Amino acid sequence: MARDLQHQKLSPDSHEIIHHYGKNVHILSSPLMLTLLSKLGSPATFQPQINELTEMLYSHLMDTVVDSLFPKIQGRVETRMIQTHPEAVYEGEMVDSSTPVVTVDLARAGTYPSHLCYHKLNYLMNPALVRQDHFYVARECNKEGKVVGVNISGSKIGGGVDKAIVLLPDPMGATGGTIVEVYNHYKNNVGGTPLLMVAMHLIVTPEYLKKVTELCPDLHIFSLRLDRGLSAEKVLNEVPGKFWSEEKGLNQHQYIVPGAGGLGEILNNSYC
Question: Counting CB atoms within 10 angstroms of each CB, which of 25, 37, 46, 224 has the fewest?
Fold first, then answer.
C-alpha cells in the first residue's frame, strides 16, 4: 500500500519572532495568544477567567513544545473505515508516546500550569511514563523589596529523570533565579540524565534570558511574550537582543513591565 508523502516528514512552524538571544530561546508570535495574554494581565479580569485563560495559554505552549521538541516515530493507525476499505490506515509521523515526561510544579505560580501540562500529557503519552514533581520555591527579598535569592522550603520528586523530558511550566520568567535553582537541582541531585529540559513561560524579560542562557546553556526556553517595556526608545525600535545589555523589563522590585501583575498571587487569590 502506498504511503501519502505529506504525512511522512512534518515540519511544524511555531511562528517565532526574530531575536538575538540564541537558538534555544523560542518567543512565539501568535496574535491569538497575545490577545488572550493581554486579557489575563488586565486589572478587569478575575477568577474564574484567570484560570480559564491560563489553561488556553498553556495548552498552546504545550502544543508548541511537543511539535518542536518531542521525539517522533513513523506510526500506523487503522481507522474505522478499515471495515470497508483496506486503505483506511493513517501512516506517518507521530509523537513517540513512549518518551518519559516529568512536569515540575514550581509552587505557587507554577502549580496550576504544571497540572494543565500533566493532564494533557496523560492523553498524549503513555500515562505510566508521565509524572508530576513538586518543588516549593519562592523569591527571597531584602527589606527594600529587591530579590536577593531563592528560598526552597521543600520538594517531592518521584524518581529519576534518565532519558526523560523535564518541563518547567513557570508563568513569569522575571529574574531567572528560580529556574536556575531548579535546573541545577535536577542536573546535580536527581538520578539520570534528562533527554531535554524545557522552561515554559507566558512572559520573559531580557534580564531573565541573560541569566538563564548563561547558567543553563542546554535549557530550551519557550515564551508567549517578551517584555522589555522599561527600555529606552532606541532599544525598543530594534530587534530584540540587538542591544541586550540595554534592555530592561524589571522594575526596582523585580516585577515585569508590562507584565501581568503578580500572577502567583492572582492565580491563588493570595497576596501575602
Answer: 46
CATH for 32: 3.40.50.2020
Among candidates 37, 62, 56, 34, which has minimal Cα distance to 263? 37
**Is position 8 within any domain?**
no
DSSP tag of 224: E
6 falls in which pLDDT band (50, 70, 90)? low
* Nearest-10 Cα torsion for 256, 249, 115, 24: 180
What are residue 226's DSSP bridge partners? Answer: 204
Helix, strand, coil percentages (3-state) for the chain, rounded to 5, are 35, 25, 40
pLDDT in tens, 8-26: 665 655 589 999 999 999 9
Q: What is the pLDDT of residues 216-240, one digit of tens each?
A: 999 999 999 999 999 999 999 999 9
